[in-house]
Amino acid sequence: MKNISLTLLVFLMTLGVFAQRPERTYDKEKLESARVAFITNRLDLKPEQAEKFWPAFNEYQEKRNSMMKDMSEINRKANSDISDQDAGQLIKKRLEIQQNMLNLEKQFMDDVQKTISPSQAAKLHEVNRQFTRQLYRMNQGRSRGQQRNN
What we know:
Layout: H1 2-19, H2 28-43, H3 47-78, H4 84-112, H5 118-149
Helix pairs in contact: 1-2, 1-5, 2-5, 3-4
Keywords: Coiled coil, Signal
Protein name: LTXXQ motif family protein
InterPro entries: LTXXQ
């Protein structure tokens, strides 16, 4: 019953993030609060685990997002007219970033298993994806509703 109530609370919080902003912007703070509640609930984190887990997760996400931004820039450049030499350099940079992302994830998983159990750590990636998919579906539903109203 506790999990159902907490999941319902997360849904309502997440809905509030998108429902209040029709121009497709969002309240980053509310979104992150919803993510914290969702992941904490799905991984069944104890308060002492959550206290140590979230700072490590946030640091990991920040570094990963920075690398993803760099990867997007490379992909944009690769889609333009470039020489073979430049293309070769972009491929090299892309592989380097991918390796750095893998190294970052390995380090994060090693570190986080000192705070949460290996089974919780194994579920983390999929739980985070579930949250993202849920947001996407909710946003898609909201977009369809707006199109019908117009």
